[in-house]
Amino acid sequence: MNQVRNRFLTSTVMTLAAWQLRRTWFLLLFITLGTIAAIVIVCAIPLLSNVMTTAGLRSTLKATPDSADIALNTSTNGISTPIVQNIHNQFDSLFHRYLGNTIRLEQFAVTSEDFSFYPSQQHTVLTVYGTSIQQAAPHLGPIQGRLAHITSNPASEIELMMTPDTAHQLGVRIGSTLHFSMNYFVMAPGSGAQQSSAMITAHVVGLFTMTPTNAAYWHGEDFAPIKFAVEGSTTFHQYTLLVPDNALLAFFDHIRSTYHHTDAIHTFTPGGYGLIWHYHLDPSQFASNKLDSLVDQFAGIQSTTDSLYGYLENGVSSDFTAPYPILLTSNSQARFSVPMEIPVFCRNFAVASLWRVFLLASLPYLFSRLFSSL
């Protein structure tokens, strides 16, 4: 009797459920599809946001040729190849410690304003810009003549290049010879500062023309002759000449080698010798989920630099105070700048993250209102 009653109840329940399903199957199907869609959207939005933010970060770092550049600009009162290498090693290891293989050295340059024409030309300032000519060759535009190289006698001869405007104003051409004089002093143990001068013969071997497409590589240096006047004085002319960096350092090293127990030759110029390293970040190795780590890495570089060498925030130079004898002897200063696009992108990323949180928080409410209306 009980088995018949249970069978009857089961049949009745199934019949009533079938009748109810015929009336509400569309609503149940819609709710199921809506639930699946909500799950997909909730899962896909963070993934899509991550992909789009990563693409935005990389496009920001590729917006201009120098968007992903880090410039290390140092000045030193004394110079020699060991000092240049010492300064490079300190900062290079610091950058790679925090940024690893996401950064690579793109360009090095050394500048000097110690040289002057011989015989002397009044109201003329010479800036000698040394960099790797072979590396810079693709960025020199149309070249007349040939590229400059280190000579067989770097102690007394050097090859240089200049723009056609500079050559015109100086009255020289390819094959011309110029004579330069350089004043310097050395710090000899027991005898103090010893002032002296050196002569070098410069051969003009090439003329190059700067083009807008190559301007980014030189980071603002156009090698154009400059004419300026100080208030109450006559007009000055400044010329920037391009030479191989290894040739310029070889000349400095030769002078230093003529003295015993000295680590460098020193300049009378207040700005010292300029040493510039340009590093480039690889945008393809950055993702939005590593943005906080990237910001922390730059903060680590900044704090470590400040603790070792003094406060360098906003590019303010500070004397080195770290216990490096060569740096202390050479009275070095340094500053570095990071891409300004990164802080701007961080601000935009924060706004996008807030919008994503708002959208995800709103989805349950929107679906509940939709289902309740049905």
How would you characterize this protein structure?
By secondary structure, the chain is of the alpha+beta class. It has 2 domains: 2-60 and 348-373, no CATH class; 70-340, no CATH class. The chain is built from 9 helices and 15 strands. Helix 1 runs antiparallel to helix 9 (341-373) and helix 2 (81-99) runs antiparallel to helix 7. The two termini are 44 Å apart. The relative contact order is 0.19.
Please name the defining characteristics of this protein.
8-stranded mixed β-sheet; 44% helix; alpha+beta; 2 domains; 9 helices; 15 strands; 374 residues; 5-stranded mixed β-sheet
Number of H/I helices:
9
Please indicate the percent range of residues in DSSP E strands (runs of 2 or more).
25-35%
Ends apart, CA distance between termini = 44 Å
Write down the Rg. Answer: 34 Å
The unreliable regions are 313-333
Output the helix-strand order.
HEEHEEEHEEHEEHEEHEEHEHEH
Brief summary:
This protein is an alpha+beta fold and 374 residues long. It has helices at residues 2-61, 81-99, 133-136, 164-170, 215-218, 245-257, 291-309, 325-330, 341-373, and strands at 69-76, 78-79, 103-112, 115-117, 124-131, 143-145, 157-162, 177-188, 192-208, 226-229, 235-244, 265-266, 273-281, 318-319, 333-337. It has 2 domains: 2-60 and 348-373, no CATH class; 70-340, no CATH class.
Map the helices and strands.
Layout: H1 2-61, E1 69-76, E2 78-79, H2 81-99, E3 103-112, E4 115-117, E5 124-131, H3 133-136, E6 143-145, E7 157-162, H4 164-170, E8 177-188, E9 192-208, H5 215-218, E10 226-229, E11 235-244, H6 245-257, E12 265-266, E13 273-281, H7 291-309, E14 318-319, H8 325-330, E15 333-337, H9 341-373
Parallel strand pairs: 5-11, 7-9
Antiparallel strand pairs: 1-13, 1-15, 2-12, 3-5, 3-13, 4-8, 6-9, 8-9, 10-11, 14-15
Helix pairs in contact: 1-9, 2-7
